[in-house]
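lol so apparently i was supposed to do this last week
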Amino acid sequence: MTQTISPIVLDHPLVRHKLTYLRDRNTSTADFRRLTRELSLLLAYEATRTLSLVPYKIETPSGAYQGEQLDGKKLCFVSILRAGNGLLDGMLDLIPSARVGHIGLRRDHETLEVSEYYFNMPRDVPGRTCIVLDPMLATGHSASAAITRIKEAGAHKPIFACLLSVPEGIAYLQKHHPDVQIVTCSIDQKLDAHGYIVPGLGDAGDRLFGTR
Ligand code: URA
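anyway here it is w/ uracil bound
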């Protein structure tokens, strides 16, 4: 049997504080965006914890120093449209040289099945560590479909980063992609009958972009 990788949960007072305001239905669109940006920066910090380093020599003002730098071609963030874009700014604040890919997936509200309407990735994906972004890991169908597509494009062992997740979504993603590391700010209780996370925060895309 293939071994799955346990999710990393950002159990930190700052994260819990910010998540509470994010969940609050009375939080404004501007504050929701700001909190998402701040949380995504913290997610980026945790999601990149296992990146490898190589030695790198520099001169400090007081002499030679054997430092370190990130190995290889570095990172590619992959935003699952449209809510994934809400996580991009914070990630890019921390890692400005990362490349960015986009995947557009539509979810049928009756069947919860997903179909693709957009796919655009940097050409050099095989040499980069891919971090797939979606604020919500709900059924896991979109995350799994997105990861299947980026693996077809050459991504190796991608990482999946989200604000909220549920056990059902984690199990689905682990079943289809046991090699993927999930990084999340919280594992919530469950999904409701419409595939929304409970307690959750509502529709992440609508709250980020002020629609509906
Ligand atoms: N997508 C959302 O935006 N919210 C949920 O609760 C689940 C999926």
